[in-house]
Every structure is written in structure tokens, then in C-alpha cells.
């Protein structure tokens, strides 16, 4: 008369399932499957757990469930086992509200740190400075020359030591007084951290 272990093993071999494949299908560790096939009850958990294993294996291997359960009851020794009653079955990942909260907090912290890092880098770097007027070697026909350009909003601009107002978008426009001896215009942009960017434009004065 066949044991429940023999019945399950024959069904597994008939389906050509390896122990690894059966483990993946049922989420029952292959060591437990081997013990059931060998009817080695002393190394298995309590009967309710083993019964659950057998039912799972029977359904997966297309074995008659009632017959497998009946043979198990016949084969299982009538004694209490002192083995860890918790089966080592692969746990299924579930997304919980707590995990959502923790992930949200983590993303928020990363965003704040990224923003602070960007602002610190911006604070410590030299300011940007673009000059659109005058162009290089521009001829100037009067004692005043228009200057125009763009920088950051929190930067101070001077041209030949004369201050120029910067608007809320970082644009600046103004007129600088020059003399016949003036050969160039020195644009100096100074950030809040004291970093400086300097650009010179050569001009040709003719007045």
C-alpha cells in the first residue's frame, strides 16, 4: 500500500517537475517536500501544517485531494512533535500604508537635501554674467555709453566702478559716463557670497 509521500513523489515525477520547480509553484521549501516524500514526520512541523503542505502539493500535482488527505491521516504518527510549528514558506510582499508613508518621507528628505545642495552650490559659485551691449570694439560717439546684459537676481553689477541696477529677472540696463581716454569697460558681478565674475569690453571713443 502506497504512502502519501510515494503518491506525491510519483505524481511529481510523472509531471517531470523538479524539486525546485515544485518549490516555486507551491512556495514550500524543497527540504519539506523531500521529507514528505520520504514520510519523515519527525523532522516536519505539526499535523495541521503538514496537512496544509500535502493539500497544496496534491492540488499542484493533480492528485486526488481527499485520497491524499486520507492516506496522510493513516500514515501520520499519533504523537506530538516538538518542532518549530511555523512553516518556512516564502512570504509574499505586500504594499502597506506604513510603507507608503516611509517611502514618501524618504522622497521628501531627498528632495529637500537636493534643493539645499543646489542652493549651496549656487551660493558658493561665481555669478553668471552676459553682456549684450556694448559689443567688442564698439565705436562710442558721446560721453555716455549704454550697457546692457543679464546676471542672477541677487548680484550687484558695477561698470568702471559705476553701479547698475539689476531688475527682478536679472536684467540690467544703464548708461555709463566715459572720457576720451577710456579704452574699455570693466563689468564686475559680485554675488552675496563675495564671488566675482569680471568681463571687459574694449571700446573706441570718438567724440
What this model shows, in words?
Helix content is 39%, strand content 23%. The chain is of the alpha+beta class. The protein folds into two domains: 4-75, 434 Repressor (Amino-terminal Domain); 129-205, Immunoglobulins (Immunoglobulin-like). The protein has a five-stranded mixed sheet, with no helix packed on it. The chain has a three-stranded antiparallel sheet with strand order 1-3-6, with no helix packed on it. Strand 7 (184-190) and strand 8 (196-205) form a beta hairpin. It starts with a helix and ends with a strand. It holds the Pfam family HTH_25. GO terms for molecular function: DNA binding. Keywords: Membrane, Transmembrane, Transmembrane helix. This is Putative transcription regulation protein. The chain crosses the membrane at residues 99-118.
Essential attributes:
207 residues, 6 helices, 434 Repressor (Amino-terminal Domain), 39% helix, alpha+beta, Immunoglobulin-like
Brief sketch in words of this structure:
The protein has 207 residues and is α+β, with helices and mostly antiparallel strands. 39% of the residues lie in helices and 23% in strands. β4 (156-159) and β5 (162-164) form a beta hairpin.
Amino acid at each position: 500500500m502506497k504512502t502519501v509521500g510515494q503518491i506525491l513523489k510519483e505524481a511529481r515525477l510523472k509531471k517531470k517537475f523538479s524539486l525546485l520547480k515544485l518549490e516555486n509553484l507551491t512556495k514550500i521549501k524543497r527540504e519539506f517536500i523531500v521529507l514528505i516524500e520520504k514520510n519523515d514526520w519527525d523532522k516536519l512541523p505539526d499535523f495541521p501544517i503538514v496537512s496544509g503542505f500535502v493539500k497544496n502539493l496534491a492540488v499542484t500535482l493533480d492528485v486526488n485531494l481527499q485520497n491524499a488527505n486520507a492516506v496522510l491521516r493513516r500514515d501520520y504518527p499519533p504523537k506530538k512533535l516538538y518542532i518549530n510549528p511555523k512553516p518556512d514558506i516564502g512570504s509574499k510582499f505586500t504594499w502597506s500604508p506604513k510603507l507608503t508613508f516611509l517611502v514618501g518621507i524618504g522622497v521628501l528628505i531627498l528632495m529637500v537635501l537636493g534643493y539645499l545642495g543646489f542652493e549651496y552650490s549656487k551660493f558658493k559659485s561665481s555669478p553668471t554674467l552676459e553682456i549684450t551691449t556694448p559689443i567688442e570694439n564698439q565705436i562710442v560717439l558721446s560721453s555716455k555709453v549704454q550697457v546692457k546684459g543679464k546676471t542672477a537676481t541677487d548680484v550687484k553689477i558695477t561698470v568702471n566702478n559705476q553701479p547698475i541696477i539689476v531688475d527682478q529677472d536679472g536684467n540690467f540696463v544703464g548708461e555709463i559716463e566715459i572720457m576720451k581716454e577710456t579704452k574699455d569697460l570693466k563689468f564686475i558681478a559680485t554675488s552675496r557670497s563675495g564671488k566675482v565674475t569680471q568681463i571687459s569690453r574694449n571700446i573706441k571713443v570718438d567724440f
